[in-house]
């Protein structure tokens, strides 16, 4: 009896096509799921595979509606006895956000593995088929149970919580700058060395099963000499939360800080993150979070802090509780 794996296809470069095999110019989200599977014939030895096309887009066009569709579909499928794991094909640009959203909203310990590619399907040395193969064998393996949502990329396996895209074009773009990969896939099997201690999936309190939209949370990038324009515009446009991507340990230019204080007075939840790309944004460092009523993102980057704040705001506006979420998930 082979494990049953369902592939949910959403597009990305892995489904992209180009006229020139050696160019970075191509269109993402062109090939249907059947064509992606045809490029990994050996995978059938490891799993019975079914495919569903959810959308076919470049992941720069990913949105809340597709996140909710994916979360609900994963929850439905993983309840079925005849589904052992899910692979999601996805673009690399925003895979970390989609994956983290699923990590917090899918209520199952069965594996979910996101895969993508940097070279499109018509490129010389396209990396999609190997990543898809690794995704399938990882989703089919009992060792992957209870690991949270995973990413198989360039031979490595990552906890999606820790992962980010680090390079615009290179096949080794996926990295976990703080905590590294948790395993490696080869010869048709995943081998694990670490496991995240942060809560996910079956232990997550977030429930999107009845939701059709998510709270509006935006991201403001910090820099020298910045003014209040972007912050004020987001507040006027009804942001419920702002992730401020501060310099260093989440530090803030004085004029921007004044604008954030005003935003906070209007009830907007402010989360400080860092533009450094690694490390924790720590409480009460150079910024007096307690006095200001700010939250810190801990080791999450801005795009993942945004996902967590959106979900946190579906259940509470309490700052202490939101801060606790950032130390829990
Ligand atoms: N490599 C990729 O997949 C990039 C593409 N723009 C996407 O995210 O869909």
Automatic annotation (TrEMBL):
One example GO MF annotation: asparaginase activity
Q: What's the top EC group for this one?
A: hydrolase
UniProt keyword Signal present = yes
Q: Which UniProt key words apply to this protein?
A: Hydrolase, Signal
Give the positions the UniProt entry annotates as the active site: 13
Q: Which residues form the L-asparaginase N-terminal domain?
A: 4-195
Q: Tell me which residues make up the Asparaginase/glutaminase C-terminal domain.
A: 216-325
Question: InterPro entries this protein is in?
Answer: AsnASE_II (IPR004550), Asp/glu_Ase-like_sf (IPR036152), Asparaginase/glutaminase-like (IPR006034), Asparaginase/glutaminase_AS1 (IPR020827), Asparaginase_C (IPR040919), L-asparaginase_C (IPR027473), L-asparaginase_N (IPR027474), L-asparaginase_N_sf (IPR037152)
A Pfam family this protein belongs to? Asparaginase_C
Question: Is Zinc-finger found in the keyword set?
Answer: no
EC number(s) reported in the record:
3.5.1.1
- Report the SUPFAM superfamilies cross-referenced here: Glutaminase/Asparaginase
Q: Which Gene3D superfamilies match?
A: 3.40.50.40, L-asparaginase, N-terminal domain
Under the heading NCBIfam families, the entry gives: asnASE_II
Per the record, the similarity remark reads: Belongs to the asparaginase 1 family.
PANTHER family, sorted = 60 KDA LYSOPHOSPHOLIPASE, L-ASPARAGINASE
> Could you identify this protein by its name?
Type II asparaginase
Give the originating organism.
Rubritalea tangerina
């Amino acid at each position: 009896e082979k494990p049953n794996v369902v592939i949910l296809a959403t597009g990305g470069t892995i489904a992209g096509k180009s006229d020139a095999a050696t160019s970075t110019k191509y269109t993402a989200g062109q090939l249907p799921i059947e064509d992606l599977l045809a490029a990994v014939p050996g995978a059938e030895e490891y799993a019975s595979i079914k495919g569903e096309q959810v959308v076919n887009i470049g992941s720069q066009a990913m949105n809340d509606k597709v996140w909710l569709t994916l979360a609900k579909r994963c929850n439905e499928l993983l309840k079925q006895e005849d589904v052992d794991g899910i692979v999601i094909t996805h673009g690399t640009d925003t895979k970390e956000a989609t994956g983290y959203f699923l990590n917090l909203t899918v209520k199952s310990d069965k594996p979910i593995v996101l895969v993508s590619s940097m070279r499109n399907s018509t490129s010389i040395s396209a990396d999609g088929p190997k990543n898809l193969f690794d995704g399938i064998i990882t989703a089919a393996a009992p060792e992957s149970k209870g690991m949270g949502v995973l990413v198989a990329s360039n031979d490595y396996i990552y906890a999606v919580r820790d992962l980010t895209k680090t390079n615009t074009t290179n096949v080794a773009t996926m990295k976990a700058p703080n905590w590294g990969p948790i395993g490696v896939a080869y010869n048709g099997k995943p081998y694990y060395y670490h496991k995240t201690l942060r809560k996910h999936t079956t232990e997550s309190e977030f429930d999107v099963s009845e939701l059709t939209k998510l709270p509006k949370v935006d991201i403001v990038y910090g820099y020298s000499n910045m003014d209040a324009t972007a912050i004020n515009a987001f507040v006027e446009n009804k942001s419920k939360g702002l992730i401020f991507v501060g310099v260093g340990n989440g530090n803030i230019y004085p004029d921007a800080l004044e604008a954030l204080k005003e935003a906070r007075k209007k009830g907007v939840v402010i989360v400080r993150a860092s533009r450094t790309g690694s490390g924790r944004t720590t409480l009460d460092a150079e910024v007096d979070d307690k006095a200001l009523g700010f939250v810190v993102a801990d080791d999450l980057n801005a795009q993942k802090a945004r996902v967590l704040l959106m979900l946190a705001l579906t259940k509470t506006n309490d700052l202490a509780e939101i801060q606790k979420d950032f130390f829990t998930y």
